[in-house]
């Protein structure tokens, strides 16, 4: 079964790499419209997944990621339409130059080829991954988690119909038609057919993929994100940014998991920030200084500083300035997304320059770590490594490049 998917995907990728922008955009617009038309059908499939979730012992965060409603389906449709309006990266020229021999050399974007996407409880990833792979001229093999299997099937069926309508190969988007975990193992060994594997999920999934894959992996790791409130921070801004970063949606990878407060402003800022979090229903685990400002604060343990809670829990610590904040983030962070709240431009510049994370922000919530918010239409994930792609993985990140060289009969002596 998996080999058949691979053969079909490889052939589809051969066609997709030269597909016209107009055809790809037509498929995306048709898929957006079909998501709306088939909303009831998709929600019915999603309810099947939700009904089965009771026996799977899913966390509240996992159920939140799994659940679809009219608003979320409309967001998926809008993302597809936005992607259709973005420039097509395929064939775009990244650089050009002429060398002394007279050869004219251009570096041109081309698709990666066949992309295997392995993910857990988010059915919207089916739409995002399919759309981004389609627009970037790739074929994809999607393997959703068993918890979102019915929802993902319904969404994948939308793409099958829209690809037919645009006269593009339906094997450009294929969903692995079984929830058997053995299918993941097979996919990770299909280097003859698959060019890149993109996993999106928890630590155990990422670890398994990285350990077993014979194919290059573009990893999306955990998001242990930090907000650092500097001594020159405006208190009201710090409260607004921190509350949103932690509590807007606690189960996403861009949610803040640690709050660092500069000792220079702890006397005025720490208590209001901590009480605000506690009053909003967030559990606070703090160091001694944080525990002293409110009896409801629990003592933080060493493990808390490196934990991605994905829940209404936050670790809070007082640090001695931006230098200690940077060192703390380097030691405990996951290189995902970090924020500094400050009015001091020099301090902000140091933080943004020295913090080695995929996304660094000044005076803005970490929950902006999202391809949609970056104007990329959607994302397959947030890459936290250093090779090929970093941050939101969108259209350009799903391409590589080749050198196109024009000569006039030159030979090398």
Task: Provide structural commentary.
This protein is of the alpha/beta class. The protein has two domains: 2-220 and 380-406, 3-Layer(aba) Sandwich (Aldehyde Dehydrogenase, Chain A, domain 1), CATH 3.40.605.10; 225-368, Aldehyde Dehydrogenase, Chain A, domain 2, CATH 3.40.309. The protein is 41% helix and 19% strand. The protein is built from 14 helices and 16 strands. The chain has helices at 2-16, 21-37, 39-53, 60-66, 70-85, 124-135, 149-165, 182-187, 203-212, 235-247, 266-279, 288-291, 321-332, 345-354; strands at 93-98, 104-111, 114-119, 139-143, 173-175, 196-200, 225-229, 256-262, 283-286, 298-299, 313-319, 337-341, 359-362, 382-383, 391-392, 399-406. β3, α6 and β4 (139-143) form a beta-alpha-beta unit. α5 (70-85) packs parallel to α6 (124-135) and α10 runs parallel beside α11 (266-279). The longest helix has 17 residues, at 21-37. The radius of gyration is 23 Å and the shape is globular. The mean pLDDT is 95.
